[in-house]
Amino acid sequence: GKKVLIVYAHQEPKSFNGSLLKIAVEELTKQGCSVTVSDLYAMQFEPRATRNDIVGRLHNSEAFNYGVETWEAYKRGALSKDLVEEQKKVQEADLLIFQFPLFWFNMPAILKGWMDRVLVQGFAYDLSKAYDGGLLQGKLSLFSFTTGGSQEMYSNEGIGGDIRYVLWPMQHGIMHFCGVKVLEPHICYAPENVSDEKRKEMLTAWTQRLKTLWKEEPIDCSPEWYFK
Amino acid sequence: GKKVLIVYAHQEPKSFNGSLLKIAVEELTKQGCSVTVSDLYAMQFEPRATRNDIVGRLHNSEAFNYGVETWEAYKRGALSKDLVEEQKKVQEADLLIFQFPLFWFNMPAILKGWMDRVLVQGFAYDLSKAYDGGLLQGKLSLFSFTTGGSQEMYSNEGIGGDIRYVLWPMQHGIMHFCGVKVLEPHICYAPENVSDEKRKEMLTAWTQRLKTLWKEEPIDCSPEWYFK
């Protein structure tokens, strides 16, 4: 069976994001996948990139450089335990699903902190090992999120612009940078502002998509997909 | 004199970001501005959006909805003290400067957490009060940041794409959404990979820009600026 890591960033299990998470765990497990969930709020995951991420002495204690220090710590096995655990989950996964509500055209800070702290140099990329040559090659990723605004607002003519504009930093700038292929995002628009029936349809659509997920081809993660 | 709030997200005062902060404080103070700094790492600013942001009872304790709860808490004066303090600084400022290193095509999580938690509904925007009608009208903002990648990488032909693509969620999705006008960003490309002389030139350029900052016109914060 395939291995899936779901990195989940919502405070409330009864939320719509909580339902989407539950569906993914159930459907993928039913398919025979091994599913791991990093429930960031429940874990009280630390989003701040600080000196605490390095165990023991610093490479250069005169002037703290987070990128250099975590790179060096990774090489000598001196990253903090919570990071090592997340990296192990990433290493083992065939597919990474990120489930979250869009906050300010972006992921919530707690999830951004997961990216900032887990995907360190040496582990996820290296000097000349980025994008198609990134160190996490062979894996897939999928951004699944809810919005506050409607689909019309996030269109080319809408005030929020094309929703793909907000996907660029996440999909290209993070996942593609690490060599991870990107599946089509899964977007539920404004679940708080639609009818119960529409919400049920959205949940069913997610279940249906998951049934054939492993047959999907990744997107072409180039500027054309986002901006043309 | 004008009032300036600098929201600063770097761990190390001796860093290049630290030098840019120092320059801004000195130059703007010399001009007679009143400058306040929110030094997020030094403050150990909390980036996680949780129930702790609401003092006392919840509006709906059955299912926690951060957006609804902070909106309700704002209206009845029940937001946590650290948020109230940041909101007061924002309220008083004529100009907001965000100083940070670009992490993963975006701001560091600690700064994203400042956006997520401080700019709550009722304070920064409201139901039909967003974009040009946002509640923080009359203020200016400026994103000043350093990159790891070179200017060539962040060009239209570069693998990172036009740097303006990463500015859309920050400038349009956050500041413009709240009614704040946006000045041209100030970008120092790859300060860790250039000569001492080039670094000095970058610092001088920042000082020079600040001297005539109040004469600048905001950008036209529409899709054309970012994607055409």
Automatic annotation (TrEMBL), chains A, B:
It is an enzyme of class 1 (oxidoreductase). Its cofactor is Zn(2+); FAD. Keywords: Cytoplasm, FAD, Flavoprotein, Metal-binding, Oxidoreductase, Phosphoprotein, Zinc. One of its GO terms (cellular component) is cytosol. It comes from the Eukaryota. Pfam families: Flavodoxin_2. It catalyses: 1-(beta-D-ribofuranosyl)-1,4-dihydronicotinamide + a quinone + H(+) = beta-nicotinamide D-riboside + a quinol. Residues 2-210 form the Flavodoxin-like fold domain. It is found in: Cytoplasm. GO terms for molecular function: dihydronicotinamide riboside quinone reductase activity; metal ion binding; NAD(P)H dehydrogenase (quinone) activity. The enzyme apparently serves as a quinone reductase in connection with conjugation reactions of hydroquinones involved in detoxification pathways as well as in biosynthetic processes such as the vitamin K-dependent gamma-carboxylation of glutamate residues in prothrombin synthesis. Belongs to the NAD(P)H dehydrogenase (quinone) family. Homodimer. This is Ribosyldihydronicotinamide dehydrogenase [quinone]. It comes from Dasyornis broadbenti (rufous bristle-bird).
